[in-house]
Write a structure and sequence with these properties.
The protein is α/β, with parallel strands linked by helices. 15% of the residues lie in helices and 31% in strands. It has helices at 67-70, 86-90, 185-195, 217-235, and strands at residues 4-10, 13-18, 21-25, 32-33, 36-38, 54-56, 79-82, 97-100, 105-108, 111-121, 132-139, 144-147, 166-170, 199-203, 208-210, 240-241, 249-252. The chain has a 7-stranded mixed β-sheet. A 7-stranded mixed β-sheet has the order 9-10-11-12-13-14-16, covered by helices on one side. A 3-stranded antiparallel β-sheet has the order 4-5-15, with no helix packed on it. Strand 13 (166-170), helix 3 (185-195) and strand 14 (199-203) form a beta-alpha-beta unit. The termini are close together.
Length: 254
């Protein structure tokens, strides 16, 4: 059986390898997305040459559900989406779509995927049908990983306390400001206090940037993980922080 591993492909795209299963979250795998550019456009293909056992979609925003990126995968790949989002995927030809409301679960081989609550506006367009956002708890026989997707801080995160080995927490975005429904470095540290994971890996940073901000890339990408490290030292010093650059991986020891 292959080793368990977390690979931060970039933004909210994470390759989670648990119990021999390979699950990919919110794939954005191309160099440009609307008015955004990838800081590391050549990385994703290096990590996706092998099979993908399932794709997990947290919500329908374009930087989380990117149909040109999904064209890389066969139409029968299992896709797990929040309740109400299945029609959007099926209309694009995907035939193995599972909708999960918070608390519901699905099995992908030896891994179990449980949908969790997320506080975020998740529909595709402002005028489109309302669809909830979701996070996911992915479990094998040996460990559990929490992928928060996009979410604000909420007290029920404490229900995960005591069972999460790795928490994948968003800490930034693709512009200079975050709106409501997002964690920033400060609230991500507060989330770690509630969840009490063994390790926090920050996501949703370091990858996408507006074209007009390219000259500020070092400042924009460097600040959030440094701030998160400071706040974790203050609020949750027992939690290990592992900052992965896009394309880097964390091996999970047995």
């Amino acid at each position: 059986m292959s080793a368990d591993r977390i690979t931060f492909v970039g933004h909210a795209t994470v390759l989670i390898e648990l119990g021999g299963m390979r699950l990919l979250t919110d794939p954005v795998l191309r160099p440009r997305l609307l008015h955004l550019i990838q800081r590391h456009p050549a990385l994703p293909a290096d990590h996706l040459s092998d099979r993908i056992d399932a794709v997990l979609i947290s919500h329908l925003h374009h930087d989380h559900l990117d149909f040109p990126s999904l064209k890389r995968f066969p139409r029968d790949v299992p896709v797990i989406v929040p309740a109400g989002a299945g029609r959007t995927l099926r209309r694009r030809g995907f035939t193995a779509v599972t909708e999960l409301a918070a608390g519901e679960s699905a099995s992908i081989g030896a891994a179990e995927v449980v949908a969790t609550r997320a506080v975020h506006e998740g529909r595709r367009f402002k005028t489109g049908p309302r669809v909830e956002a979701a996070g996911y708890e992915i479990a094998s026989a040996e460990r559990r990983v929490y992928f928060a997707g996009d979410t604000d801080l909420f007290e029920e995160m404490a229900e995960l306390a005591g069972r999460i080995d790795v928490a994948l927490l968003p800490i930034a975005g693709w512009g200079p400001r975050l709106g409501t429904g997002h964690l920033d470095p400060d609230t991500a540290a507060e989330a770690a206090v509630l969840i009490k994971p063994r390790v926090v890996v920050p996501i949703h940073w370091g990858t996408l940037i507006r074209r007009d901000m390219r000259d500020r890339a070092d400042e924009f990408f460097g600040g959030p993980p440094r701030r998160l490290a400071e706040r974790l030292r203050e609020l949750a010093p027992e939690v290990e922080l592992t900052v992965l650059a896009p394309g880097a991986a964390l091996e999970l020891p047995r």
